[in-house]
Amino acid sequence: MNNNGAKQRWGTIVIGGGQAGLACGYYLAKLGEDFVIIDQEARAGDAWRKRWNSLQLFTPSQYDGLPGMPFPAPRGTFPTKDQMADYLEEYARRFAFPIRLGVSVIRLVRTHAGYEITSSAGKLVSDRVIVATGTNPVPRVPTFASELDPRILQMHSSQYHNPASLPPGDTLVVGAGTSGVEIAIELAKSRHTIIAGHPTFHIPDPISRYAGGIYWWFISTILTVRTPIGRKARESILNGGGPLIRVSMDDVDAAGVERLARVAGVSNGKPRLEDGRVMDVAAIVWATGFKPDFSWIDLNVTDETGWPKTHRGVSQVAPGLYFVGMPFQFGLTSGLVGGVGRDAAFVVSHIQQQKA
Fold first, then answer.
1. Is the pLDDT of residue 207 over 70?
2. Could you count the other beta carbons within 10 Å of the beta carbon of residue 176?
3. Domain that holds residue 279
4. What's the pTM?
């Protein structure tokens, strides 16, 4: 892994060294492209290492590999977040990608000579930029959270590590997607835990674990922006969250987690549910997802949702600007480790065509 410290100009700069950025690196390297990957973390895979201790991937190992390197685990098993982090680090090492770690991006502008990045490592210049900053840029927390009593500890799911992260006492988990459900089940072992929110639809475990190629073919080929059912699924997922995978509300009930309505606001410093009930809790975990933030790109590249206006990751307003790793960029699998390679291949193929 080469930090390539002195050079300041490349043909392509990839912003983000997670699975999306590394998949782009694989295809750029195959073309012999002059490129560099920059990432703010100290090690490849660190974004995974920072997540909660017991986290496992939602998809089985046979669908968790990047192009050119299958994930090294038995079929039907779900890798831990540390196993995925180590896999990404080994992936970058095996293919010897040019990576500059510990580089934070401050601003991206378009100039007469291409693109200029203002970063913690100085000015970086390129003909093209691939933004691969992932599906989880900024935690989403309701604005009324600031009205809660300061004695209630609040934490977004991205900050949660284990039950010791929270004080003793009743704990409210807000959000019934996969992350919220897994965290609630874990917390219920040590305290009274409440989960608030309407669960997303559930994909039964035997389907995701054992259905093999048929299941993956369906979610990667049918659930795309090219099909009516895919476009409907995209709207549902972007507005309401992804499906429950590997866990279900039956698991929530079996763990003794109390299920309640959505949190609608605050009354006297306490969370108020949409049914009017006011909760007296010691801590709240906001498992409310993430929102995009591309304000550091000094171009009008986003739509009303905050996500970039693209065709399969190719910017519709800024030539030479690309995006990989966005939720449902092309299909349901676009935001998954095993699906990001297809989007990376499409983007790099477009770069090759433009150069030709």
1. no
2. 22
3. 140-200+241-286
4. 0.91
